[in-house]
Amino acid sequence: MSTRMTDPETEQPAQQEDRRMAVTSLALGLLSFAGGGPLLAVPAVVLGHGARRKVRAKTMDPRAKPLATAGLVLGYLNLALCAGLLGYVFAIYYQLVAASVALPGR
Question: CA–CA separation, 11 vs 57, rounded Å?
């Protein structure tokens, strides 16, 4: 099976989009761990899904799929870590508030 895609009307190789969306997803996923947090992780996930959709529709280079998948994984991982950290902070805050309310003499 050939990986070359052709335009059915002209039998010429189909014009494929470049891999910018997938590369941007990967870059944002990496930068989200370098201090961008969820602010960069959300666009990494959105662009990663968009790039994978275009690969499935055969309008983007199939070699972009691993890049888009890596951007997705990094974006989702960063979001999960941020959610876990936020939950931890709220749990600590709740414990401090509960301890201050339970103090005798107040």
Answer: 18
Q: Which of 85, 57, 60 is nearest to 24 (CA)?
A: 60
Backbone φ and ψ for 13, nearest 5 degrees, come out as -55, 135
Q: Is 5 left (phi over 0), alpha (psi -120 to 50) or beta?
A: beta
Distances (CA, A) of 67 to 23, 85, 90, 95: 6, 27, 35, 42
For residue 78, give the 3-state DSSP assignment. Answer: helix
- The pTM of this model reads 0.76
- Flag whether pLDDT at 2 surpasses 50: no
Reported as half-sphere exposure (CB side, CA atoms, 13 A), residue 41 has a value of 18
pLDDT digits (tens, 9 = 90+) for 14-62: 545 689 999 999 999 999 999 999 999 999 999 999 999 999 999 999 9
